[in-house]
């Protein structure tokens, strides 16, 4: 569902999941869908930056020895229970994209293997009733001018 100045998409509430490895594993396929759906004016600086972001995603996904292995059937089914529908500004959505890459970078710097079975984490946190229409990860940012992937700053948490 599209709203003027708003976009709707499925993603993971990072704060609700409260486990960085499981968040990255569950959010990874959703991020791919967001990157596929997001378009900018051809040859604009944002379009070029989006191409770079898509290449980074592909490098993570298509390595000979992938960074994030595909979840087994049970783990994938449980992670899908964590998916929530969000409606935000395009800018807020791009902040999520940037945060995801920052999160995965931190985990890779710590030599994380992403082999952890997240079934128990998903079962514990995602089988409860969902809140519709909230902001993922407690994001609270304003839409200031154009969207520039190079200058997306860290959002402030609510509360």
Describe this structure in words.
- The chain is built from six helices and four strands.
- The chain is mostly helical.
- It has one domain (7-144): Growth Hormone, Chain: A (Up-down Bundle).
- It has a two-stranded antiparallel ribbon. A two-stranded antiparallel ribbon has the order 3-4.
- Helix 2 crosses helix 5 and helix 4 (73-80) packs parallel to helix 6.
- The longest helix has 20 residues, at 90-109.
- The protein starts with 6 loop residues before the first strand and ends with a strand.
Tally of extended strands? 4
CATH class category: Mainly Alpha
Distance linking N and C termini:
28 Å
Radius of gyration based on Cα positions: 16 Å
In CATH terms, what is the architecture?
A: Up-down Bundle
Biggest sheet character: 2 strands, antiparallel
Q: Rough shape?
A: globular
What is the third-level CATH name, the topology?
Growth Hormone, Chain: A
Number of helical segments with 4 or more residues: 6
Helix coverage percent of residues? 40-55%
* Mean pLDDT, all residues: 76
Largest beta sheet: strand ordering: 1-2
- Strand residues, percent: 5-15%
Given helix and strand content, the structural type is mainly alpha
What is the element string, with H for helices and E for strands?
A: EHHHHEHHEE
User: What's the domain count?
Assistant: 1
- Indicate the low-confidence ranges by residue numbers: 138-159
Protein name: CSF1 factor
GO cellular component, one term: extracellular space
GO molecular function: cytokine activity; growth factor activity
Pfam families: CSF-1
């Amino acid at each position: 569902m599209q709203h003027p100045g708003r976009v709707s998409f499925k993603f993971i509430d990072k704060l609700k999941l409260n486990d960085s490895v499981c968040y990255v594993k569950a959010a990874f396929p959703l991020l791919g869908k967001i990157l596929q759906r997001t378009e900018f004016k051809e040859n604009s600086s944002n379009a070029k930056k989006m191409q770079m972001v898509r290449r980074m995603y592909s490098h993570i996904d298509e390595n000979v020895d992938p960074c994030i292995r595909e979840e087994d059937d049970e783990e994938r089914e449980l992670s899908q229970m964590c998916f929530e529908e969000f409606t935000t500004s395009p800018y807020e959505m791009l902040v999520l994209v940037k945060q995801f890459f920052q999160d995965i970078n931190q985990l890779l710097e710590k030599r994380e293997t992403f082999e952890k079975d997240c079934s128990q984490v998903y079962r514990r946190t995602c089988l409860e009733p969902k809140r519709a229409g909230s902001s993922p990860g407690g994001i609270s940012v304003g839409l200031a001018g154009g969207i520039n992937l190079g200058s997306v700053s860290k959002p402030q948490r609510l509360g």
